[in-house]
Design a protein that fits this description.
The protein is an alpha+beta fold. The protein is built from 18 helices and eight strands. The strands form two sheets. Strands 1-2-3-4-5 form a five-stranded mixed beta sheet. 29% of the residues are buried.
Length: 408
């Protein structure tokens, strides 16, 4: 147990503990620094940098802990005052947790957010995405805070942080979700006014059209080869297949059928099964992949570091790839494949089949009556594209005529 005579300066200087290993037990990676002279009051610091005031006490023989607020939103003086009220309740034979909930009316952000998701977003098919976006960028800053105390400046700080990390589109979506959340809070009488009223949306959400040039694609491929398994190989498969990041990143060995990847509707964006042919370069890379031991035996993940979960941390991994002259994203590789196939003379219908699209030429009445799977055409198209990529990497001139013959 760490005890210190806390001051504002001391609290500000306290450093988070190191990140625990993946196999560590739940609850590790946190450190409690108790405020000397205030029994049970501590500052809990997580390895990610979050600091929260907590009160540890016993009631009915059981050790309990409640959160009094996050630092720096809740200062040391405010935490001590809240601790004093909680201790008085305990000394009077009451449970501080029950008293605090009664006093606040359960207006803490997490409780109100859960109620909003249930009542306002219950019928929204994208409810999980809404929760994920808010939990990622707003909840860490507002956890333990009461919604009436969240002001306009607090909201701007959260949204600006998303913009500053280079995600203006995500910032706009977060803006929309939070605006609806606060408007609902007004209607429920939780707050008197929406802190986001007349708050402009950040930037503009324009459709991306970034396509990597042959030289850029070669640079990304070569750097991915240096990174190696698992992210480097995963990026190379994205280049060879035009698949979505989740389709390759969460790929299981059971989904590989000879020289094809067979994805069920649960694994695709449009909910329909999708077959991805593997070209000769793709099969060559597969032969090099290690098979991490998994409890699920033959149904483990192809790209994993622990045998239990698929790879994550794509943003961090991408920093190891070339920055190029213009900003680019992992998803731009998919657009690059589609554009490259078009340059090789592959028809739009076959390109959409390769990508697993049901829009454009395969939508509407055509999509209803056209049931041809284009399996042979997809194989030819991706073989031609694989040959093109190999020619770029090896510095040879691509064979356009041969590619067109094989892809038609």
């Amino acid at each position: 147990m760490v005890k210190k005579a806390l001051t504002d300066a001391v609290v500000k200087r306290l450093k988070p503990p190191p990140k625990p290993p993946a196999e560590a037990k739940a609850g590790t990676g946190q450190m409690d620094v108790f405020d000397q002279g205030y029994p049970g009051l501590s500052l809990r610091i997580s390895y990610g940098g979050r600091k929260a005031w907590t009160y540890h006490y016993r009631t009915s023989g059981k050790l309990k802990r409640i959160t009094l607020g996050n630092y720096p939103a809740t200062s040391l003086a405010e935490a001590r005052e809240t601790w004093r009220k909680a201790k008085e309740a305990r000394d009077a034979g009451k449970d501080p947790a029950t008293e605090r909930k009664r006093e606040t009316g359960a207006t803490d952000f997490e409780s109100v957010l859960a109620e909003w998701l249930k009542r306002d977003q219950g019928g929204n098919r994208s409810k999980d995405d809404v929760k994920r976006i808010i939990d990622k960028d707003a909840t860490p800053s507002w956890k333990g805070r009461h919604v009436p105390n969240i002001g306009r400046r607090d909201v701007l700080d959260v949204i600006d942080a998303v913009v500053d990390r280079g995600a203006p589109v995500m910032a706009r979506r977060l803006h929309a979700h939070l605006h609806r959340f606060f408007r609902w809070c007004v209607g429920r009488g939780i707050i008197a006014a929406n802190p986001m009223a007349d708050m402009p949306k950040p930037g503009s959400e324009s459709k991306r059209d970034r396509v990597l040039s042959d030289a850029e694609l070669k640079a990304v491929w070569n750097e991915a080869a240096k990174i190696g398994w698992p992210f480097g190989h995963a990026v190379q498969f994205l280049i060879l297949t035009g698949a979505r990041r989740s389709e390759i990143g969460e790929l299981r060995w059971s989904e590989i059928d000879g020289d094809h990847i067979q994805l069920s509707g649960q694994r695709t964006k449009n909910g329909q099964p999708h077959t991805i042919p593997l070209s000769k370069p793709g099969l060559g890379i597969f032969d090099e992949l290690p098979k991490v031991e998994s409890e699920q035996k033959n149904d483990g993940y192809v790209f994993t570091t622990n045998g239990k979960t698929p790879i994550s941390g794509w943003t961090k991994a991408k920093r190891q790839l070339p920055s190029l002259n213009e900003p680019w994203t992992i998803h731009d590789l998919r657009r690059t494949v589609a554009t490259g196939l078009q340059r090789l003379g592959v028809s739009l219908t076959v390109i959409e089949a390769v990508l697993g699209h049901v829009s454009g030429s395969r939508a509407g009445v055509v999509g209803i009556y056209q049931r041809h799977s284009f399996d042979k055409e997809k194989v030819a198209a991706l073989e031609a594209w694989g040959a093109h990529v190999v020619s770029l990497v090896e510095g040879k001139k691509p064979g356009r005529v041969a590619a067109m013959r094989g892809a038609r």
